[in-house]
Fold this sequence. Notes:
Largest sheet: none
Helix content: over 70%
Amino acid sequence: MSLTNLKEDLLAEFREERIMINDQLEMLDPLATALRRPAAQRLFSSSSLLIAEFSCYVISLGGIAFATFMHRIYPFSLLSEAMYTADVRNRLGAPNLSLLIAATYGLVAVCVVLMLVIARMARSTRLKNEVLRMAGQDIKTIVGQHLVRRAAVTAIEQRHLLGLSGVSPVTKTVSPIRAVPDVANVA
């Protein structure tokens, strides 16, 4: 293996690494910017989701307790009294009264289930926010490492004048900003 082949291989590897670093920076930098949020906003969001989750669990437990003691609470105790009073039961109809009591318990059960679902949704949102926060930190670290590596590659390139040997930095052409023509206000 000759020295020129080694030099050409190293230069080709250097070019590929430079292109890869630039491509990865182009891909990761907007993602890191999108995932960054102020810490105070994230803390408020996380704490509010935690409070919402806890509140929904407490409300669902309260709903279960309410369904258990509903026959002793004033407005709902009238339903059980009407069921066991023969005159009222005959006037309203026993099946209608039974269906009314069952519907009342069913509404309480639906509310309890909805509170449990809302609590689980708040929990999953809170956990997803935590994963996004960690991903943002990891991407920020990766972008920092790539920027350090790109600076090292640029320093090597400048130190050894590799621009003369065909390795040049990848530059993007930016279109010039076009001037917006002034439009006279016609009133």
